[in-house]
Amino acid sequence: MTALILEMKDITKTFPGVKALDGVNMKVRRGEIHALVGENGAGKSTLMKVLSGVYPHDTYTGEIIFNGQKCEFRDIKHSEERGIVIIHQELALIPYLSIAENIFLGNERQRRNIINWHETTVEARKLMERVGLDESPDTLVMNIGVGKQQLVEIARALAKKVELLILDEPTAALNEDDSKNLLDLLVELKKQGITSILISHKLNEVLAIADSITVLRDGRTIETMDTHQEQVTEDRIIKGMVGRDMTHRYPERKAHIGDVLFEVRNWNVYHPLHGGRKIIHDVNLHIRRGEIVGIAGLMGAGRTELAMSLFGRSYGRQISGKIIKNGQEIDVPDVSAAIRHGIAYVTEDRKNYGLILIDDIKRNTTLANLAKISRRGITQDYLEVQEAEAFRSKLQIKTPSVHQKTGNLSGGNQQKVVLSKWIFAEPDVLILDEPTRGIDVGAKYEIYTIIQRLANEGKGILVISSELPEILGICDRIYAMCEGRITGEISREEADQEKLMKMMTGTGGGKLGHAG
Amino acid sequence: MDTLAKALKSNIRQYGMIIALVFIMLLFQILSDGILMQPLNITNLILQNSYILVLAIGMVLVIITGHIDLSVGSIAAVIGAIAAILMVRMGVPVWLTLIICLLIGALIGAWQGFWIAYVGIPAFIVTLAGMLLFRGLTMVILEGQSIASLPESFLNISSGFVPDLFDEAGGLHLTTILVGVLLSLLLIWSEWRHRMVQKKYGVETIHIGLFIVKVALLVAVLNAFMFILASYEGIPNLLIILVLLIAAYTFITNRTVIGRHIYATGGNVKAAALSGIKTKRVTFMVFVNMGVLSALAGIIFASRLSAATPKAGNLFELDAIAACFIGGASATGGVGTVIGAIVGGLVMGVMNNGMSLIGISIDWQQAIKGLVLLLAVAFDFYIKNRSN
């Protein structure tokens, strides 16, 4: 048994209203690759932010022992000095600076504040060689791919004399070759004595390289497995990740499903900036009247990209394929056309894409269908107040009045305003992207009830969610997505979390969905 | 009393600048020994500031959409130059000149709007380029000279007054008084109707006593103002133009779908686009509108100066922008009102006028105006942060 490099004891971290971590324990041995797995919201990222000082030591309780010493980090800089470096999912590189400049960002090779460019270039070249990055140190970061950018991040960590490297979903945005490269590099670094903590959803990767695996669920440590001492399978990890009590978290559902309402055929989408990168591959799907259809997929599977490209081509380029509604092909060149054809898209990012936070509830509610509250282009303010009030009481938005600014509302209430907006637009098809992200359990139940009510009115609903219990709890039929493809289709009766997780990670054999 | 305090508190941002304006007027009224409120000076105040107010109306829309326009002064200058050339050198009739000038203004606005909305170049840069470009073109068109002796009917735009339909009685302009009375009736009627509609839809209304006090106060201010004007030459033509513009643009921003789209685009362009609003077209149209109003300001300025000069409109853009920010517009977009911009413009105008009356030098005037702008916006920030 090798010595421990890190021990986290009884870490508890609370956010207003939510206990994100609840007495988490984790032990990492020196020189191993330690995988941290769990569903979205299980607390993996929070735990790593505690470890790296993003959340300073007085905002959580518990102990961190690193290299035998008790640590109380004030900020990232402090943890980096001790040799802990975290690489976030969203890369923290400056696109307009060169690779060398990025590697030494905040850690410049300098003497009395004058940068030593010669040393910068030479050192950068050495580090780039270590991570296998074959580029000129002067190349701008914006001109290299995501895979290589990931390597720049690692080189930057090495420049800081890293002992413990934390990677948060490093391969989420990478293709297969780049992912393999990166994983090989981690194994290589391990031989050089660098310990890594790898957060990943891709269980096949985890099993391929990890020495230990810790499973988190609902902010608690479930177990830590040693892959050298016991036979660990994906099934076992998945069981640990998802095993939870699911009674009464979802409203009772009696579905009345009708004819096919909305259909997508051979849908292909390319990246808006990198023209050659195909994001969505030949997607076929359909939604019936009164049906709630789920799309399950991990982060980076292309779910949001698919939804937004369907919604008036709000995402992507060179889009090809057919959208058929009520048996007729429709043309949806922009958002207003999509709204006219009765399609609504409720965004996953309500603050940036859903609401005008400086405006009040009523103005946000009516925004997508101003025609309904205006006569000859003139808005009827009192009509607007009435309509908004109706939604406020129907959706139980908890505020004193509709004149409240949406920026001051809680997440659950904000989400209800976004839902109001799109129900007010009178759509037949609603695409709901992570409809319960970041809201508390009680509000979630209310949102599920609203979704069911809409389905019972004969609308077709497409729900995108990373939370498998949610998908299983509310959907009638489920598609699984992985890397821009539909990798399976399964009915609610047949589905369970393990089957879905297999389809979503592209490891299991769900039957391929063939619509129409 | 409680409700009054509450109403004041919740609307302090709205009324704050109006209160400040009243305070500044009273201050200079006292400091200037009563010259400020004299009929001649009030009339002058309107005429002097008319072009800035016209620009501020357009500018506030630009700022609400989250942009800025630095070129309006130069556009005003180039339009003045074109108008002079058309009328003096080419003998084009005044009415046709006006139409041509407004159209050219729209074209210039479309030119800038194209780069900003459809190409995506920041408005600061596009209009900075426009500022240099149109100033340069003004010099080229005028060949560095001023053109004077503009036609009488053109000058009448800014120097004319609404004629009196009655014989003067005791030096009072009776038509003006009559207009004041008619407007008062209109005001009372519309306020009453508004109150009735509010009641019908179950909206909370202010107490009837407070309502009467409010309407009475408005009527008093209106009639006092008309009386002051009547003691001089009556209602200036420019005041008619201004009132029509303010009314029209207030209506557009408050009551129309287009107005809603403008605020939504500035409030959150991504959310607006995902709600089916054609945000690029909205931005484009706002700049076209700015071009037309810049042209109008150019016409008014040339008419008032009785000449087109290469230096016309210098620094107008900064006065217009300052008016918007003093009037509560937000530099990040989505917030601002036409009335606010007008009040902001008047604050600047009254300060200019008042400081001149009491003999503060032009250099100090600049410095003091700069401080007022900063303090006004700082006040706004304070209020905003407190409400959060």
Description of the structure:
- The complex is a heterodimer of chains A (516) and B (388).
- By secondary structure, chain A is of the alpha/beta class.
- Chain A contains 17 helices and 24 strands.
- In chain A, the strands form six sheets. Chain A has a six-stranded mixed sheet, sandwiched between helices. In chain A, strands 18-21-22-15-23-24 form a six-stranded mixed sheet, with helices on both faces.
- In chain A, a hairpin with a 7-residue loop joins strand 13 (260-270) and strand 14.
- In chain A, helix 4 packs across helix 5.
- The longest helix of chain A is centred in the middle third of the chain and has 16 residues, at 176-191.
- Chain A is globular.
- By secondary structure, chain B is mostly helical.
- Chain B is globular.
- The two termini of chain B are 25 Å apart.
- The model of chain B has no long low-confidence stretch (mean pLDDT 90).
- The A-B interface holds A 311-312, 314, 334-336, 338-339, 345, 347, 352-359, 363, 367-368, 370-371, 374, 377-379, 381-382, 385-386, 408, 421 and B 197-198, 200-201, 203, 255-261, 263-264, 267-268, 270-278, 334-335, 388.
